[in-house]
Amino acid sequence: MYPTGTGSPTGAAPAWRADGASEDVRSGLDHARQSQASSLKDPHALGRGSPVAIGILRLLGHELPDSAEAWRLAWEEHGVDCDPVSSRVLVLNLRMRGDAACARLTEAAGPEPLWLTWRSLNGTFRTDDADVFVCENPSVLIAAADTLGERARPLVCTNGRPSAAATRLLTGLAAAGVTLHVRADDAAGQEIVSGLQAAIPGVWLWCFALRSPERPRYEEQDIHELLRDLDRSRTRPSDVTLPLLAHDAAPTVMVTSADIDAALEADDIDRYGGQ
């Protein structure tokens, strides 16, 4: 059973195992596992942001992690496994291979929306699909499942800011050679896409401009165009995306499916950044 806590954005405190820790800290970590609820009289004493947890990380030579993902990685370096089931990510039609549990789960899910936990992403995983699309709002994924079913391209939904599980999934897919096509909505979406750019160089824009819009625009407003882009029977991935430019590059131009249709009629699709 994994203890939970309020110190972490995922609502979880570390669950301890010392098998991977270095020799000089293993005994201390083993004691910490037992003392969290007894000697410290607080089952959340080692949760993210607690004075005890911060002190231990500093003794181990770490700067204070600035995100849930960094927090997990810092502890994993010393054999400490944070709660592996609270952090999760929503996917659709993402068939994966490998020894991680997510491979079996995605194969069994078929064209049904599926939550993958951090735990299910432990191990190796890959996909045979060359392109995976990323949205922010679950309404896009639900609409794709309801409207397109098996015809929908592989889709990952961050459900707001990416969780540690979402970051792990997307980073792993990119490392395996998958091209990620990302978008988000409203003002916070700019930060989300920028954050993905920083974490995963080489991702592509999907009908999205990396700049502050004059008016916030939400994915539900473009749902028809997004569903058309996700339909395997209508378009190719290279027809609906643009490379994600660096922050100091010229502003990108938003490309919609209507633009794509016009370009196809003019036989001029290459000007939209086709690969």
Show the helix and strand layout:
Layout (H helix, E strand, L loop, with lengths): L13 E2 L7 H13 L15 H9 L8 H9 L4 E2 L5 E5 L3 E2 L3 H9 L4 E4 L8 E2 L3 E5 L2 H10 L7 E3 L6 H12 L3 E4 L3 H14 L4 E3 L16 H8 L10 E3 L13 H9 L10
Parallel strand pairs: 7-8, 7-9, 9-10
Antiparallel strand pairs: 1-2, 3-5, 3-8, 4-6, 10-11
Can you walk me through this structure?
The protein has 275 residues and is an alpha/beta fold. It has 2 domains: 69 residues, no CATH class; 185 residues, Dna Topoisomerase Vi A Subunit, Chain: A, domain 2, CATH 3.40.1360. The protein has 9 helices and 11 strands. The chain has a 7-stranded mixed sheet, with helices on both faces. It has a two-stranded antiparallel sheet with strand order 1-2. α5 crosses α8. The radius of gyration is 21 Å and the shape is globular. The termini are far apart. The N terminus and C terminus are likely disordered.
Brief characterization of the structure:
With 275 residues, this protein is of the alpha/beta class. It has helices spanning 23-35, 51-59, 68-76, 101-109, 138-147, 164-175, 186-199, 223-230, 257-265; strands at residues 14-15, 81-82, 88-92, 96-97, 114-117, 126-127, 131-135, 155-157, 179-182, 204-206, 241-243. The protein folds into two domains: 14-82, no CATH class; 88-272, Dna Topoisomerase Vi A Subunit, Chain: A, domain 2 (3-Layer(aba) Sandwich).
